[in-house]
Amino acid sequence: MSKTVDIEWSKLGFSYMKTDLRYVSTWKDGRWDEGQLVEDNKLSISEASTALHYGQQCFEGLKAYRTKDNKIQLFRPDQNAIRMNNSCRRVLMPEVPVEKFVDACLQVVKANEHFVPPYGSGATLYLRPFVIGVGDNLGVKPAPEFIFSVFCVPVGPYFKGGMAPVNFVVSDYDRAAPFGTGAAKVGGNYAGSLYPHEEAVKKGFQDCIYLDPQTHTKIEEVGAANFFGITHDDKFVTPKSPSILPSITKYSLMHIASEYLGMGIEERDVFIDYLDEFKEAGACGTAAVITPIGGISYNDELHVFHSETEVGPVTKKLYDTLYGIQFGDIEAPEGWIVEVK
Ligand code: PLP
Ligand code: COI
Q1: pLDDT digits (tens, 9 = 90+) for 134-143
Q2: pTM score, two decimals?
Q3: Which of 48, 92, 146, 330 could form a disulfide with 27 if both were Cys (CB 3.0 to 4.6 A apart)?
Q4: Are 129 and 80 in contact (CB under 8 A)?
Q5: Has 218 been annotated as catalytic?
Q6: CATH numbers and ranges of domains, the chain
């Protein structure tokens, strides 16, 4: 490491700080340009950009991890590229080739290497790729130009408490429509979640749980993370729905549960009235990692899983294995880890 930065890594939360360089590429006349690293963290775009008025944009989130032997690695960046392209297709934006996406992430991490937190600090470098529609446009139609950019920020835990269980409350609001944009990582889904989130926090919860928008009987998402429950016979169960964001962490945990821990896995309906089927539950995602769910409040009753204060043993094993793979202590399945050289 040539440069150093004065950061108390173990005190980091999930908040913005400007790092040195970010990647920016522009799509114009039917193609992406080469892209470059720039110092400026401000974008200058037309006041008539579709991203500003019609929500024509999408984003991703992934992390870089420093290993014990001081290597830096990305976790499944190709999966974020594939998902970002699904989002781009859904809102009529040009796709970013997977190699270009991964290369942009590698360039950004390399250029901000000194912001990658030390092994053991519990912190990581969060990467935020995004695509936005820009250029002069007035009608509701796709933009004439697009920007693909990636910036990075060192972060600690997303939910206060990290691996300590937290409580969630079921929201009366929906985050997405049954056949809307719930499976795409587009900003509109998050704008709609700000108010329900604030309501949940005011009631003393970390965030809210959304039920399926069609019947309001099944769990969909836990704020900006997917839900999983552990049954009394040690099965990993997670909701299946076309309006859930397909979490890369969730699919990785399903693989870990089945291939590393020998557990059964099920992706299926999870009814809010049958929480008793689970002895443990958690929220999972890049930012959330695994956040154990202490309890879920529904119709003013708190359903407590393993404990409101202690992490359940299966959740702990899942967390330790995922953490071990991401930080290079446990051998990863083929293709999951990309080293930053
Ligand atoms: N659900 C929502 C709504 C999210 O924003 C995220 C975060 O990306 C997730 C789930 C978790 O997805 P992943 O594990 O790919 O980060
Ligand atoms: C992520 O986990 O990457 C997220 O997108 C969650 C949130 C910060 C939006």
Answers
A1: 999 999 999 9
A2: 0.97
A3: 146
A4: yes
A5: no
A6: 9-157 (3.30.470.10), 166-326 (3.20.10.10)
